[in-house]
Amino acid sequence: MNKIRTYEQDTKQLYLEQIMELFNQNDEEVLVIGSGSIAIPVVFPNGDERYVKVTVAMPKLDYDGHLDALDYSQKLEEKARKAEQKRIEKEKKIAQDKALREKKKQQKLERESNKR
């Protein structure tokens, strides 16, 4: 095994142990479920038991975490922008529908008053 691979495995193990220690300090049960993976059992207020799964990985050499973080923040901004745009369009549609209903109501009242 080459030295780079050994450094990667040692680094991954070090971070995994630090994460496990953090949960252990908070009296959480930590289950080792694989190389670089742990699971923490949680119980919801309704009694259902689930698990939080944490995996520590060392990406390939060409991975750029800063670029990944930037991409993610841009996706979140785009998602928020689209949600705001959709909200505005929905408000416009509601206002248009309300105005149309009022107009039809007025037309109906006028027709009924003209019949008398």
Structure write-up:
The structure is a single chain. This protein is of the alpha+beta class and 116 residues long. It has helices at residues 3-25, 65-115, and strands spanning 31-34, 37-43, 49-55. Strands 1-2-3 form a three-stranded antiparallel beta sheet, covered by helices on one side. The longest helix has 51 residues, at 65-115. It is elongated. The mean pLDDT is 93.
Number of separate helices:
2
State Rg: 29 Å
Low-confidence stretches: none
Query: Tell me, what's the shape?
Result: elongated
SSE ordering: HEEEH
Write the layout of secondary structure elements.
Layout: H1 3-25, E1 31-34, E2 37-43, E3 49-55, H2 65-115
Antiparallel strand pairs: 1-2, 2-3
Please supply descriptive tags for the structure shown above.
single chain, 116 residues, alpha+beta, 64% helix, elongated
